[in-house]
Write a structure and sequence with these properties.
heterodimer, A: about 25% helix, B: about 80 residues, alpha+beta, 5 strands, globular
Amino acid sequence: MEANQMIDVKLSKKSIGLKDFSAWDKFEGEGCVNIFIGKVKPKNKDRNVIYLDFEVYESMALSKMKEIAKNAKKKFEIDKILMIHRIGKVSTGEIPVIIAVSAARRRPAIQACQYLIDTLKAVVPIWKKEVYDNGEEWVSAHP
Amino acid sequence: MILKILIFGLAKDLIGSNNFEITVKDFITVKEFKDILKLKYPKLKKISSFMIAVNTKYAKDSQKINQKDEIAIIPPTNGG
């Protein structure tokens, strides 16, 4: 991430983790970084989850992620935003999404992080299929 | 005009493909297009609601669709 690039959004076909925002160590002057890390649950409604399969409308997803990050920068007193979301199969225990927000103060960083994950779920064109040991289901995409 | 449509998520499973082409009148609105979809693919009624994206942006019902536009059916999203 360039020093002057305050918003960084990515889609990844490979595993993601804390290493993906190590570049932030080089920045100075920030008071805190708030990080949300999603994990794939091993169980959902008593069914054993083997993996999630994320389908992504890539061009639109990147554009919407940038849009909501820009909105967050307008709404909250924050500095930088990093959002990374996986594409394809993500196994139980792996990380499907990371959102990190830096700011001078903790409250706007925490609020912005919550806004970003909630809004990502609602508007970014990503769909989650849960694959169980006895079937599969699109999550929250039911009548 | 012929439109090329992208389909995702549960809508893809209900229609049985991740894309299709459809012939419609010129300058059709998004609302008219949605009505045609529901007639042609009644299984889409199983989804509580779906949005249409035109050129990677959510479109309002009144928006006109042009032949070269990239159209996508967007069922309720659920990333994260």
